[in-house]
């Protein structure tokens, strides 16, 4: 009888040890992904026509870097649509052109990534940390033209801080 009790104690201790081992190896301890934020800004046909023709989207990544992209609902095939990010707002623009680039038209919806995983910016020769909250402090608007040399705005809209104005 004493031998059976010793054997039962050994088996019980072994089962307890194995249970702790398996619990420690559980897959439910995966790291929690941080919540990321995003905000989308409407681009319209003109300052007086509120028909939505595109968007500008600011996105925060898990590593705190930011992305900014512009999408036109329709584009003209084989046309490079110039776009600008300009300081201020549509109603009160500044003379600061923050960015000038083009969106290649494909005959359908077209998207251009403006910032991709940006973590720092250079201001007056000094590198500074840049994140989602920093981006929201920029007063700017976006303006897209049909093509270079032709003064025809096809999309415009306040973005970032200027969208609240």
Features:
four-stranded antiparallel β-sheet, about 160 residues, alpha+beta, globular, 2 helices
Protein model, in words:
The chain is α+β, with helices and mostly antiparallel strands. The mean pLDDT is 84. It has two helices and ten strands. The chain is globular and about 85 Å long.
Percent of residues in helices comes to 10-25%
User: What is the residue-mean pLDDT, rounded to a whole number?
Assistant: 84
Instruction: Report the major sheet.
Output: 4 strands, antiparallel
Q: Could you give the order of the helices and strands? A: HEEEEEEEEHEE
How many distinct helices? 2
The quaternary state of the protein chains shown equals single chain
* Strand order, sheet with most strands: 1-2-3-6
Beta strand %: over 45%
Cα radius of gyration in angstroms: 27 Å
Shape: globular
Distance between the termini: 86 Å
Would you count the extended β strands for me?
A: 10
Taking pLDDT < 50 over at least 5 consecutive residues as the criterion, the unreliable ranges are none
Classify the secondary structure makeup into a structural class: alpha+beta
How are the elements arranged and paired?
Elements lengths: L1 H23 L13 E7 L7 E9 L5 E7 L7 E9 L4 E12 L5 E9 L1 E4 L2 E4 L2 H5 L2 E9 L2 E11 L5
């Amino acid at each position: 009888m004493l031998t059976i009790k010793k054997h039962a104690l050994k088996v019980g201790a072994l089962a307890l040890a194995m249970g702790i081992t398996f619990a420690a190896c559980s897959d439910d301890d995966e790291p929690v992904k941080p919540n990321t934020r995003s905000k989308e800004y409407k681009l319209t046909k003109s300052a007086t026509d509120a028909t939505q023709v595109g968007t500008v989207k600011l996105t925060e990544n898990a590593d705190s870097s930011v992305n900014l992209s512009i999408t036109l609902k329709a584009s003209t095939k084989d046309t490079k649509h110039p776009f600008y990010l300009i300081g201020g707002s549509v109603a009160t623009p500044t003379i600061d052109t923050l960015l000038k680039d083009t969106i290649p038209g494909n005959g359908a919806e077209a998207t251009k990534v403006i910032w991709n995983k940006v973590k720092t910016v250079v201001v007056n020769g000094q590198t500074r940390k840049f994140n989602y909250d920093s981006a929201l402090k920029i007063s700017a608007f976006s303006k897209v033209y049909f093509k270079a040399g032709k003064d025809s705005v096809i999309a415009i809209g306040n973005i970032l801080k200027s969208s609240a104005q």
